[in-house]
Amino acid sequence: MTVITNKNDVTAIRPELEEADSQGLTDFLNLSLSDMRAWFENHGERTFRADQVFQWIHRKRVLSFEGMTNLSKDLRQKLNESAILRAPQIETVQESADGTRKYQLRTYDDFMIECVFIPNASAAGRNTLCISSQVGCAMGCRFCATAAIKLKRNLGAGEIVAQLYTVLNDLEQNGYELDKTKPHAQHVIANLVYMGMGEPLHNVDNVIRSIRLIGADDGLNYAARRITVSTSGLVKNMLRLGEETDAQLAVSLNATTDDTRSEIMPVNRKWQIKDLLDACRSFPLKAGRRVTFEYVMLAGINDSDEDARRLIRLMKGLKSKINLIPFNPHPLSPYERPSAERVAVFQRLVADAGFSVFVRTTRGDDIDAACGMLGGEKLEGAREQELVNISLSDAS
Ligand code: SF4
Asked: Are residues 80 and 93 in the same domain?
């Protein structure tokens, strides 16, 4: 039986988030407004205080109780003693020559995660933020730097939304105008994509909860249709995303035969291309929407004319948009980027068959912020090793 829940009701999914941790602290970043009201009631406080705290966090992006200036000193002290806001803290910000900003954030338990702000110079305000859903990833895609970290843990819903709030705060400090009369912040970040570290549907409860927190009326009121969740093909949770949120779906396809896909994406051994495309057909698409198919192009692996023709056959009957992503080579992966000519021929073949197909411009590759390059310390370590290897071979 499928349970269809109210897409705006963050209480409809209730993983064990409201419980205090072993130190007796409740992480308020994870709480819906109704959870927060219940907490205040249980702690002998008036519930309108919960509304104030919720707005401080999710609308004004204030990530410490000290900053909530309309609360009494006593209440702030009480909150500090029994609650916490576990927002990841900025460790470093790197800015690319093209304006892309990569944030390394440290979680409360000392893991590093990354998110990337991608400005769009040609269309004011059409900026994108790419956020992480896990520390590392269990999916093992062979072209991806995050895979080398393996899965350390899921991010909580609060840790996911805090990436958006932290970046907005940083952008504001760096001269971006955030119109306070527009709580939704879509004028600064038009697209929020769950394409950073991790497989979002492997952490589906917290991802769904985070989409609802970001979209809360008393928060940023950020429209779910501006959110895209990308999956490597975790078929079992795709329908849930469609039934419980209005977010858009992106599928990382990357191959046109099961042999190749299983080789580069182990998830294909469990759910093969047919299963994946059947799940896409069952995904509850709103009118006018399409599934985005990401296709990372790997030289000599999946970029032949025959691949293009197979892709055309696979896409038949699907409401699709296809993004071709020329691979960004990095030392944690054995693959190479195809030539620009090869990419252009592939695109032309698919476009001539009547499909919407785009080549995604590589952004931020000089700071390892491009697609598939969020490998944190692992990638930095591999880069250092690569430099050592290069200088050793130069010396010999
Ligand atoms: S591409 Fe995505 S799903 Fe695959 S290993 Fe990397 S982060 Fe995980």
From this structure: no
